[in-house]
Design brief:
The chain is an alpha/beta fold. Helix content is 29%, strand content 30%. The chain has 4 helices and 8 strands, in the order βαβαββαβββαβ. The strands form 2 sheets. Strands 3-2-4-5-6 form a 5-stranded parallel sheet. Helix 1 crosses helix 2.
Amino acid sequence: MSIETRVIMDETAIRRALTRIAHEILERNKGIEGCVLAGIKTRGVFLAKRLAERLEEIEGASIPWGELDVTFYRDDRNASAEGTNEQSFQLPVHGKKVILFDDVLYTGRTIRAAMDAIMDCGRPESIQLAVLADRGHRELPIRPDYIGKNVPTSKSEEIEVLLQEIDGSDMVRIMHQREEN
């Protein structure tokens, strides 16, 4: 078997998508007042940081942002795993518009876990969702508010997001396993 890869977003496309998402957030929320960004661990954190920087460049004001760890809220985690969910998010969310950011939206299960984590931190005014890539195949009724790129995929394909901060380069690629004859 071989893995066939195809780049669907390069560094420039990712930058443009984040800039567009920033403008859409500003338009929908009439600015950033009362908004909080929550980057879902791991790659969503770096994307949220970049988005916060874009919003500050555009608005001239900073938006609070932080890292959201959904590990202990996932429905597929081992129940006997040690740890606590007390430190899932460090910023106040009560009465705020929380904008979740994740790299890829697939089944919706990570986002469900993220919403549970946020609700345990307080009662937000609203929760919005931004994703860099939406590949479809939802198992839960979850839809993003802001999308970098829609990427229709088959279930045999995977989307891989590479970011400079972790991987040394920025790109989104689609990977497909091929049977060799």
